[in-house]
Batch of 2 targets.
Target 1
Amino acid sequence: MRPLYVSRTACITRQSVSVNGKELPVSSGDGRFLAAVYRTLGIDYPKFFKMDNLSKLGFLASELLLREDRPRFVPREDCAVICFNRSASLDADTLYQATIGPGEDYFPSPSLFVYTLPNIVTAEIAIRNKLYGETSFYICEAFSAHQLFTTVSHAFADSSIRSALAGWTEYGNEVCEAFLMQIETFPPPETALPFSVEFLTRIKNKL
Amino acid sequence: MGKSSFLRRMEEKNGLAMIVWAGDNIISSLGFTTEENYRAVWSGQSGIRLCDAYRGIPEPFYASQIDRKQLGDRFAALGKRPAGYTPLEQAAILSVAQAADQARTDLSAPDVVFILSTTKGNVHLLDEGERADSPRLYLWHTARLIADYFHNANEPVVVSNACISGACAQIAAMRALASGDYTYAVVIGVDMLSRFIISGFQSLKALAPAPCRPFDAGRQGLNLGEAASTLIYRRAAGEEHPHTVSLVQGAIRNDANHISGPSRTGEGCYLAIRASLEACAADDLAFVCAHGTATAYNDRMEAIALTRAGLNRTPVNSLKGYFGHTLGAAGVLESIISIHALTDETALPTCGFRQGETDYPLHIAERRLRTEKPYCLKILSGFGGCNASLLFKKQKKTDETIVC
């Protein structure tokens, strides 16, 4: 197997937002937390406001990783998007469920229903960045350094994959946490770290 | 030809390996064994029926459902009380138990991994007032429950990648086996109907007002269906072990276009097909088992992608007219039927198809076709613009031929 490197990291929790371990000040304002992060990053992507919370969270983490890339939005098939979490799309599920109550409360919402799949976050990232490679979503009981490492490493066995945006995106039951990495095969700049179970275990302890 | 770059790369690391079929089972509206299901499809039976007044849903719809009474009875015969398990859990466990019997494998062994494919798991419990923090609603919990039933201690893998999940789970199995981490992978695809799922597809105006007609010019939408299916794969060292069918290649690609609408150019589907055809010549394909949901957009998208890939003359079928769209189970169920059709030297017909479209004409299988070609391709597409392909290869006949 080719050695893999983590060239960038992005982390979002309600307490802090950071890129490559460096904290980014978020002007909280009076709005919601994820909208505040969106405004702080100065992104202009109105589709953001249609997304469910899980997609917003993953989208913002991917923007943190890629926003300084120039050129951006160059179509590529060699980059995979692989996310993991604990509760799949349960946050969106409960919102949709509220639209299908009994009797007169039955007004199923198609715009909420389309977000009741966890892999939509990987699609939002792929659409924004024109990534035609593999998109996958896996569910674990808790952040599993071992499963994340093996699953992402195995994805590189697909000979056309040279890079991946991968990590943990969990939203629901009071939890809001994203940890996303840019993982690559080519020799990295000095700031890059070997992608390994040890690296992921250190991250897990910080989340 | 015949070996994918993925397997070649893994071989460099782990020595020669093939990912071979070891056992399977299908539970659906058409029966509780693979044989019952394959025979029903072979003879043109469909499990799709009109469902009226389903749990307070105002509009009737067509769907295929697993017989709950039989499911409960058969599950009870395993020796566990059905009351402790949801119908989805019962169906999954019963399916795995039957596949394991066929594979003659001890699923509690440390070199066995469970891989679950489901889109919505026990989502019906939300409707029954289950709180959002109840473990029963979590997909990892469903997987753990199934693995625990078979005393398997390894962390199960759960794939939830919309309607292509069943293919993704097989690709995950292929990678886990080829890497040498495990010897057996138990791939389970399961989804059941619920008010949640039916109302959602109705709200998207995706359901047909009649039994679905994949690839037909007059198609009006899809039917939903219930299924639990299990495919057990084994890592075999090269050609030493006689076997019948192997999973040669698999790929996942995204349209990068829209979260709920298929690409107008079939981009992701085409790229996924191209990646799998790396390992086989188009001329060696017995058939392509398409996703073929019978929605206007999906079938057209697949027709474009297949045409772009040069497969417009290869026999193509869709199995949705027999089972409906079984969501997270579809990739596993339809792979099993395709594997058996491949060894049966048959391309199965597309139930519901009468007349094709003229702008992207395909060779849609209308009746059973005899074919001795060694490969078949399974393709799937789903919400989130995701697409997957799987390439299966039949080996020369041996004493271990699958009997269906």
Note: The mean pLDDT of chain B is 93.
Target 2
Amino acid sequence: MKLHEYQSKQIFAQYGIPVPKGRVASTPAEAREIANELGGRVVVKSQVLVGGRGKAGGIKLAKDAEEAEKVAGEILTMTIKGLPVRKVLVDPAADIQSEIYLGITNDRGARRPVLMGSAAGGVDIEEVAAKTPEKIIKVHIDPLLGLQDYQILDLALGIELPKEQWAEFNVVCQGLWNAYRKSDATLAEINPLIIQANGHLAAIDGKMIIDDNALYRQTELAEKRDLDVEAESETEANKFGLTYIKLEGEIGCMVNGAGLAMATMDIIKHFGGEPANFLDIGGGATAEKVAAAIRIILKDPNVKAVLFNIFGGITRGDVVAEGILAALKEVKPSVPLIVRLAGTNAAEGRAMLAGADMITAESLAEAAQKAVAAAKGELSS
Amino acid sequence: MSILADKSTRLVVQGITGREGLFHTEQMLNYGTQVVAGTRPGKGGEWVLDGKVPVFDSVKVAVEATGANTSIIFVPAKGAKDAMLEAADSGVDFVVCLTEHIPVQDMMVVRAYYDQKAIRLLGPNCPGLLTPGEAKVGIIPGDIAIPGNIGVVSRSGTLTYEVLYALKERGMGASTCVGIGGDPVNGTNFIDCLRLFQADPQTERVVLIGEIGGTDEEKAADFVSKNMTKQVVGFIAGKTAPPGKRMGHAGAIVEGGEGTAAEKVKALEKAGIRVADHPEQIAEILAE
């Protein structure tokens, strides 16, 4: 789950990281009020969960409160990369002497967190990583020990940070580590961390991603979820314990297990079709879950056929068949349905479905080929 | 021979009184696995499954009383970190964790702790393992595989069942099938299993089933080209997965251009591994 810049900076502030004094506004009038309180020049920043806000015109300077109101009015009507701007952050304009990148993320290969810093801050760090990886200094953190002060010194030396800033840099790094750890983040990033003209550090932009699996214990953060970034159908699927990802093709898929769901999408493509979605119904495919899955798949107007591929392991074939039958009583699909059951109690399941108006298949390859043909209108049940 | 589990495995089930724990304990017993104990704090002294399995309050007590050498964890995500750490300190030398949705920072702590000890962890977010005809430690349906000489290692659950089933249909069996799980940070990895299969006299060929995300398949390919004399057949799921989206498994995500199916297939083929286009083709290749 991604957090907005203003939310990330609020968390950073809780852990002692210096951030600008700004606030978030939903209307131009609020923006004016905040700018008035702050006094002087301000920066008005759109709060949307995509990169490249500046390039899209979603970040603008204003010389006073009046201009802040006008600029906020413009930004609040914008849509950036498909996402509507609902809030702007109004921060005092910073007096930047130099910009640093600082971030903590999970290094999957090393199986531990990594603290990264670069003197080339303020720009797209992935670009720096691709073009000049030597400009990024990495320090791996032992999850049992936590971030050590000497490691922060190593990083400061690596990015050639002036001695005058070391003490404050230590506070920022420890704060970022605590924010990352205590928020169950998979990314906590300050870009840029600036050295101001007065020599003090400030985190003027920030980003955090929270581990979805940890939201059960991060209840306060879970409430911050921005549903704008998720397709409505994906949010709906989550409610039923389904994992659904919308794609662009014409063959809907309902599969148990993530790996098998991916393999099912791939085999549809292999035989000349395009998958319309990824959908894992998980274990225990109850009638309620199956019905929800079918409803969600069929909401997509591109879908011309639906392929059910269920391998009975924990989820027995007859239970799945029961679920499908009950679901079909409730939702009456207008597109051909292809079903393939295998594994535990598959024969019983197939027998139960034989009466229903479905195209059946024994193998996955056969099912995929039939689904591709059905989507083209070359096969019906 | 086989790897990781066989007739001598003495299993303790953590979370035996839960719905999943109890159901699968019965399945494992029916398969012939020696389930010698279960644990559930507060229920020590009770018995489950008509008096077949004694319940203890802690893993350590269960190990002392029954000589269990392997633990399997059916504890929900909230308690899984503690369950894995408890198992690591209990005296067993092999721990299998099936639990899904464990926070990744919990797993980094667990993995760092296991690395300090000479204990093997399999999973989490995995179906466990099956040595056909000998032992089932996990939830892989027992009747979909027969004993044989093909080693199977996979990041997926049901996709693996597909492959085992297709092998059985063609009269081919497995030495051991290991599900290493779909999380980004886990215990036993591809290379660990490949090394064990290479050394196992029963295993003649190996099937490796990977998916998008991370670079473990690339590392495995490198290991195969340098260290394996046995034939390896591969499959990678997720060729049609869009970048930046987590495809069900926490670890199945293409990030920053890394972890694509295309790269993995290329790495496997470069190592001389034949890669199947779809799961059923794996059995076809092995039948040639």
Note: Chain A has a mean pLDDT of 92.
